[in-house]
Amino acid sequence: MYNRHWARYLSIINLSVQIMNIIKLNTSNLVLILVLLMTSCRNQSKSGNLGGPVPIIPYTVQSENVVYYDTYPGTAVAPDEVQLRSEVSGFVTGIYFKEGSRVTKGMKLYEIDRRKYQAAFEEAKASVDIANANLLKAQRDADRYKNLDKQNAIAQQTLDDALTSLENARLQVKSAKASLLNAETDFNYSLIIAPFTGSIGFSLVKPGAFVTAGQTLLNTISSDNPIAIDFILDEKSLPYMLTLQTVKKTLQDSTFRLSLPDNSEYKYNGELSIIDRAIDPQTGTIKIRTVFPNPEMSLRPGMNCRIKVLNKDSGMEVNIPAKAIVEQMGEYFVYLIENNVVKQKRVSLGPNHGEMVVVKSGLSPGETIVLEGIQKVREGSTVVVSGAVKNEKAYQSKGTD
Q1: What is the architecture of the domain spanning 54-65+316-396?
Q2: Helix (H) or strand (E) run with residue 368 in it
Q3: Cα separation, 125 vs 178, whole angstroms
Q4: 54-60 and 383-385 as β-strands: parallel, antiparallel, unpaired?
């Protein structure tokens, strides 16, 4: 633009020299001509319309109910997950599930060689029976000697020995029952069952493998419906999350939504489950857990996804097309039209959603801005409408996020 003005000035000077040569004007007259011509050029430059009014397409600013979400990286985790280990040692004699399948609570999964544990269990039961029989004999002896003692028919020592034998018999019954409980526990632990309904992974042992009690990892089982999505939240957003914790939930609640790794939208909405007990002092963040229904088992633990949280400022907002925004030195502006003259106005922006962007401040409903033709205008330009005035509905019909 400035190069064009200087070129115009130079052409004016050349023209003036030619005029001086022709009509032999003196120096003072030449200066006067130059001043008049340059003033006229400057006035035209200020008006910004050397070529006449700039054709543009305007946009009428409106406000409407805007719903938008804050997005966070999330990870799918199982609310319940257990590593399966045997409580007894022995050889694996049976595997009763299909790897990677869904198992139900109480379902038989692994069997450790049960023969010696069954034998120990039967022996312990017999020991209890013997102890009970000894207790019964000792009880009868003690009762008999008590009657004889009342008649002074036996020595006191005999009665004392009988009562001691009775107490020992009672203790032997307790010991035998404890041994039976241990044997029964080991016998039951030789058969490993599913602790809850969920999905089971690849077996880490095969039939015939020897497992050591409490050490050998057999498999992992995790709950799968519902499934949790964990994400990290800045501590500044914690008050909003606390308010969501007290809100009554409904099946139609869309506060929490999910985008899958292929960018498709998950069809079920989630709900807030757990807010971690403390904020990480190093990062100033806190872990949040949400839960989502998972009837089709399409969500698996470890899956990376994006969780969308309804923004607390959703509601009536000024909403304009993003293409109407001009960025300069990290600040954002629009060209406001007043009486067919353009005025640059700074605005504060909210989030984008689709082709639209929320304007937090700087614009009011009913104002008109330049939508197309921005590259041709500047502060003070006179404009003329070259197309239909566009409004919010024309853009919303294209669909927003």
Answers
A1: Beta Barrel (2.40)
A2: strand 368-372
A3: 10
A4: parallel
